[in-house]
Design brief:
The radius of gyration is 21 Å and the shape is globular. It has one domain (27-228). The protein is mainly alpha-helical. The chain is built from 8 helices and no strands.
């Protein structure tokens, strides 16, 4: 029988190019984030970001007032290890109850990696913290910001898990925007409170982007292999 070149592709065949593009895209983001983090770390420890850090710190502190300080402390708490751990336990329980086992595995993997990265990088770079403005010195190293890294991994991955199960496009956009604003506000709160240099927060986001995009790449590759084998 001659080959019919006009025969439409199956949904599975149509999905493969899109999946391949997503795989390459997430892999590119992971590699670029790693390169950016490496460059930033080198520049920071060569003193190239000293003026930037001091300048931003002074500008942010210039807007300090009691109400804003209260709000920044609250936002910082939302990105703290204690709060994220409690929320993590609750969400894992909910995911398992509604049988979102894959979502539970994804969130758990993201957060275990975030903790590992935070501890490893802080011990590797040993950067001293700036003098805190409003709260006690956390007592750990400064680079990268654990709040920035952890909140990015937690809230952005959570946004991805939720939007993957929601078909309403405006609702999906709203979730992503809220997650991004929350993560950004948490990082800003750490600079406002004086417990991190701005470059610490940027590095935290870069490390988190590397880890999360790497996880997405692995997941896309796994799905790619699964569909090829069908």
């Amino acid at each position: 029988m001659p080959h019919d070149s006009t025969r439409p592709e199956s949904p599975l065949q149509q999905a493969r190019p899109a999946l391949g593009a997503l795989l390459l895209g997430s892999l590119a983001v992971s590699v670029l984030a790693l390169l950016f983090f490496s460059w930033l770390a080198r520049e920071v420890f060569e003193g190239e970001f000293t003026n930037f850090d001091l300048h931003i710190r002074v500008i942010v502190h210039g807007y300090a007032n009691p109400n804003l300080t209260w709000a920044m402390e609250a936002l910082s708490d939302v990105g703290s290890p204690v709060f994220l751990s409690a929320l993590f336990v609750v969400l894992i329980g909910i995911f398992l109850y509604v049988r979102w086992r894959y979502a539970a595995i994804w969130l758990a993997t993201a957060m275990v990696g975030a903790v590992g990265l935070d501890v490893t990088l802080k011990d590797l770079f040993h950067r001293a913290r700036p003098v805190a403005f409003f709260i006690p010195d956390p007592g750990s190293y400064s680079f990268p910001s654990g709040h920035a890294l952890g909140s990015f991994c937690f809230y952005m991955v959570l946004a991805g898990l939720l939007t993957a199960r929601i078909r309403n496009f405006p609702a999906r956009i709203l979730i992503w925007v809220f997650a991004a604003l929350l993560v950004g506000a948490i990082g800003f709160s750490r600079v406002y409170l004086g417990v991190h240099w701005p470059s610490d927060v940027i590095a935290g986001y870069a490390a988190a982007a590397f880890w999360v995009a790497g996880l997405v790449s692995v997941d896309r590759y796994r799905r790619h292999l699964s569909r090829i084998s069908r």
